[in-house]
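Q: Please design a sequence for this.
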């Protein structure tokens, strides 16, 4: 099991227990992930930290002073 946090710009886009599909984006020296259709985005990860699966389940949603964060669990 692997957990990853995704930043959401506004509340109500996802709910706990939702199954989500993930797309991978590539930068010159790292990768990032987006919950489709562009609901939330991850931080950047180096090659050795890449996801091997593209489906996950929303474990929790947290509101912080910096915005909303969804924690997604992956079978890895």
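A: Design:
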């Amino acid at each position: 099991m692997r957990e990853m946090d995704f930043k959401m710009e506004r509340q109500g886009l996802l709910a706990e227990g939702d199954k989500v599909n993930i797309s991978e984006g590539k930068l010159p020296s790292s990768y990032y992930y987006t919950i489709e259709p562009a609901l939330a985005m991850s931080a950047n990860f180096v090659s050795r930290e890449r996801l091997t699966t593209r489906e996950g389940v929303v474990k929790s949603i947290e509101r912080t002073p910096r915005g909303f964060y969804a924690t997604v669990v992956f079978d890895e």
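Q: Thanks. Anything notable?
A: The chain has one domain: 2-74. The chain has a mean pLDDT of 95.
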